[in-house]
Amino acid sequence: MQWMSPKEYEKMNQKASPPTPVWKTVPMAFLFGGIICTIGQLCSMLYQNLGADLETASASTSITLIFLAALLTGLNVFDKIAKIGGAGCLVPITGFSNAVVSPALEFKAEGLVLGLGAKMFVIAGPVIVYGITASVIYGILCRLFGW
Fold first, then answer.
1. Closest Cα to residue 64, out of 84, 50, 76, 80?
2. Would you list the domain boundaries of the chain?
3. What is the pLDDT of residues 116-146, one digit of tens each?
């Protein structure tokens, strides 16, 4: 077996990967990210107008955005939106919801425990571990240095 040199691999990779039309993808990401954030702001204002305080409205807005992203993922709509909106659809909370629901749906045929339960956090698991670890380290540093 003959190994490929890094230059040969790079050439093959460039040939197989079409260039990204940045002039199109960046504005679409900005637009879709803005739409998602606007929906979040509208939800927050709605909950506050219904009598919720700011903290409750913020939590309710997060729950609403997570639910909507999970629902759209389950209905196979989120992927179609993300194909157009690109990185703008990965606004942290909706992207994270999609990252948890997608593998869960993909592996549900393997059963509740070995499929759904074991594979649900395949994509999101490292993010959760990193977030918890970083927050623990930050908490220890705050405690030690009185921040």
1. 50
2. 24-106
3. 667 777 777 777 788 889 999 999 999 999 8
